Request: fold
Amino acid sequence: MTKMTPLLQRNEQFARTYTPVALGLPAAQVIIVTCLDHRVDPAAVLGLQLGDAPVIRNAGGRVTPAVIDDIAYLAFLAEQLFAGQVAVDRLFEVAVVHHTQCGTGFLADPSFRRQAAEATGLSEAALEASAVADPHTTVKADVERLLTSPLLSPKVSVSGHVYDVATGRITTTVDARYP
Ligand SMILES: [Zn+2]
Reply:
């Protein structure tokens, strides 16, 4: 018996009626970048089904170098595996979704950040970079960071959105555009 036991039972239910999904282009032609917060699950909030969209999650849903690397690889993979199926000059849209009440918001406070750095061994700069105090501001900055990255394929568009934990509603802050 572990904490996973009830979840594994749910998986057993899931597997009973499961239909495998073949490796193919994401049906929604979107990649979601969002926070790891357990109240912000894109499958639930955006109604994603298996095969719809890759989801990249980290603290805050920030566009870090690791996130940019993953997106660059996914663009390459899509072009290699699905040449002919995708429009020559368009691959997919990356939707960056930040949210209200983000736990990383505490890191905007310098003394909290210093304590967190001392306790975890993480650098204060790294912690500051993950902070989402105002999601409308950070999502704009992250869309810009991705659009200006030399690693981003010119065939990938980027948009920015904010999820309101209080209402369940997502609003678009930055419309999709290409680099
Ligand atoms: Zn969060």
Remarks:
- The longest strand covers residues 92-99.
- The chain is about 35% helix and 20% strand.
